[in-house]
Amino acid sequence: MVYNSNMRIISGLMLCLGVLSASLACAAELRAPETVLQGDPLLISISADMPIARMTFDTAAIPTFHYKNEVRALVGIDLAKPPGKYVFRVDFTNGEKLERTITVLAREKSEAPLGIPEKLGGNTTSSQTALVSTLAKENAVLAGLRTGAKTFWTEPFRLPLRTEIVITDPYGYSRKTGAYTIAHKGTDFRAAEGTRVRAMNRGVVRLAKTFRNYGMTIVVDHGLGVQTFYMHLSKINVVEGQLVIPGQILGLSGQTGYAESPHLHLTVRLNGTSVDPMKFLALWETAP
Ligand SMILES: [Zn+2]
Question: What is the CA(183)–ligand 1 centre distance, in A?
């Protein structure tokens, strides 16, 4: 996958004084991409020999975790975040700070018309209104799911399908239905009805239910704001509250809800922001 071609990694090195009475030289290094696209996830690494008090990106507090012996942070750039320069900042407990400017570039957005399936009322104005209002309710349920205070995973995230990967509808592709534009904030994979759908990593099932539009849906919480959503399934094999291991079969793919053909819709959320799932997967292939 060549998803990182536009991401140059920048490093920062900072000298500081120790907190002990004797002056001690110490260093902190921060690795982060210099530029990202709207909808991209960022994996930031920090090596420092002093404790971190706080990290922020554009004023929002960012949780940290350990992965492969380094302090890391995941940041999700919203698809609608205005392009421009934003500051990622680390405050250390001794009062020192480290800052990096990250430039968010506009993602090329394509738009296409999308019909409403006959099972949801067809292409009428009333079914368009019904779709948008019921989607808002479903989105509110999905936005209110809790997340664990710690990461539940230690391994890289992996694709939810073991079959040949064909993307039928990428992240960020908008569909226009009547007067409404619905941004596609996930990735659709071709998946014959009944294809096994697997947990992308270790986590806790926070939701397993059937929605009007999203169809049979499972949400796995991987902790610290990282959640994966599997939609339009034909069968659910897990229950809410269940701990799942990486690769565990969650259910079977299908075309329930707002789907005109069998496929798997995958959403990846970082602290409530839906990011490009393929870019998210690429982070774990390249994480040193
Ligand atoms: Zn989709």
Answer: 10
Q: Tell me, in angstroms, the distance from the centre of ligand 1 to residue 53's CA.
A: 39
SS (H, E, C) the chain: CCCCCCCCEEEEEEEEECCCCCCCEEEEEEEEECEEECCCEEEEEEEECCCEEEEEECCEECCEEEECCEEEEEEECCCCCCCEEEEEEEEECCCCEEEEEEEEECCCCCEEECCCCHHHCCCCHHHHHHHHHHHHHHHHHHHCCCCCCCCCCCCCCCCCCCCCCCEEECCCCEEEECCEEEECCCEEEECCCCCEEECCCCEEEEEEEEECCCEEEEEEEEECCEEEEEEEEEEECCCCCCEECCCCEEEEEECCCCCCCCEEEEEEEECCEEECHHHHHHHHHHCC
List every span in the chain annotated with CATH 2.70.70.10.
111-286
**Domain 9-105, CATH homologous superfamily name and number:** Macroglobulin (MG2) domain (2.60.40.1930)
If you measure from the C-alpha of residue 23 to the centroid of ligand 1, how many angstroms do you get, rounded to a whole number? 56
Give the per-residue pLDDT at 174.
Answer: 84
**Global pTM value:** 0.89
List where CATH 2.60.40.1930 sits in the chain. 9-105
- How far is ligand 1, taken at its centre, from the CA of residue 168, in Å? 9
Question: 171 C-alpha to center of ligand 1: Å?
Answer: 8
Class of the 111-286 domain?
mainly beta
| Per-residue pLDDT band at 231 (split at 50, 70, 90) | very high
For 39-66, the pLDDT digits (tens) are 999 999 998 888 999 999 998 999 999 9
Distance 266 CA to ligand 1 centre (A): 7
